[in-house]
Amino acid sequence: MSEKIRFAVVGCGHIGKRHAEMISRNPECELVALIDVKDKSLLGIESYEVPFFTSVDEFLKSGIEADIVNIASPNGFHFEQAHELVAAGKHVVVEKPMTLNKHDAEKLIFQALHKHKQVFAVMQNRYSPPSAWIKEMVESGKLGKIYMVQLNCYWNRDDRYYKPESWHGKKDLDGGTLFTQFSHFIDIMYWLFGDITNIQAKFADFNHKDLTDFEDSGFISFDFVNGGMGSLNYSTSVWNQNLESSMTIIAENGAVKIGGQYMDKVEVCNVKDYEMPELAPTNPGNDYGAYKGSAANHHYIIENVVDVLKGRNTITTNALEGLKVVDIIERIYALKKNGNYEL
Prior knowledge:
Blueprint: E1 5-10, H1 14-25, E2 29-35, E3 52-53, H2 56-62, E4 68-71, H3 78-87, E5 91-94, H4 102-115, E6 119-121, H5 129-139, E7 146-154, H6 171-174, H7 177-180, H8 183-193, E8 196-204, E9 217-224, E10 229-235, E11 244-251, E12 254-259, E13 265-271, E14 285-287, E15 292-295, H9 298-309, H10 319-333
Parallel strand pairs: 1-2, 1-4, 2-3, 4-5, 5-6, 7-10
Antiparallel strand pairs: 7-11, 8-9, 9-10, 11-12, 12-13, 14-15
Helix pairs in contact: 3-4, 4-10, 5-8, 8-10
């Protein structure tokens, strides 16, 4: 594939527009269509002079050629749209979460294998310099055996985010706090340490009873299949602004803490016979005005798509890894049914 890779984007909200912008900036890419159910005049996409469609069906019937379609619609639509597009012979990039349940993720992967199409899962936190550094520390064995891992995700999501007209907070379209807010961090944990087992969980809904259909906070503990134990503590009940996203690792040869609002700083590195190098700066978080999101690394995702489709590199986050993140969240949420959380 020597010519430009042709992209369409489904969903023209904050993240969809970020995809469109990164595609437009890449000299090896061409944006050929935008798709959203809302009226075009409400979306702020005037700068993109490409055909606009109100559904995936309408786009597919238009006959416009696209190699790959980026899906940045509400979570509850990801599976249905991705499955339809793969069936139509398109590669897809699916924003997190890939689906809202493991069964749908398996169906999508099966369809992609059948059609010989790639499914790229978006987990852009893997591209930040602290993530790449800690991945090398774990894989090289410098830390030795992993004893304990603690993940803390304390964010603000209030009525500036959970608006009545929005899909955020709706059970069928959002899926839950772990799916929409913190799946990036579960992905990093899985990427570094593998699968989890022996999960225990406690959930609460402190100040979102009138805003969402699900919990806003949780304490989760578990064992890693590969050894060691871990915990995930999360909340969207923090007043006014995000507090932190951090990961603390206690290991045989040392202790490491990655912190900051978006796990963008190595705060502690005490490792036997090791001197911390200077890392490249992390990209700033996505700024949505009243609230902030994860680091703005979407350009790396587009670059990886181009490299994979042109045979220059391997996929950074494949569909099986996307499935595992969904599987882990689904197993955590299954514990709500055990009487420790009132729905």
